[in-house]
Design a protein that fits this description.
With 106 residues, the protein is mainly alpha-helical. The protein has one domain. The protein is 32% helix and 6% strand. The protein is built from two helices and two strands, in the order E-H-E-H. It has helices at 39-47, 69-93, and strands at residues 2-4, 52-54. The N and C termini lie far apart (37 Å). The model has no long low-confidence stretch (mean pLDDT 80).
Amino acid sequence: MLIAKREYPYHRWEPLYFGTNKEPWYSESLSWEGLQDKMTQMLEMCLQRYRMVVLDGGFLSHAAVTRSKKHRIRAEQMNLVNYRKIIQWLKKKYDDRQECKLMWSL
């Protein structure tokens, strides 16, 4: 069994996971098209010191979706605005943990 944490140097890890309604919620204000849509959820789980048990042999398959560059850039810009709001909220809620690499300067 492999146990992993979303801590440096894996601080950009965005795993898919099975959980309950007790875990930090996924922010629907962030889109996968804008990238990093699970980043704030995983950051909050790191701040709460979650450990992940890695499923051996698991995989995900999905259909590719092609979007225009203009659409992708707009989604990335919206994600950045929403990401910063979420980070500010997390900064008020939790103490810094160096292992989690929260960008406190945002």
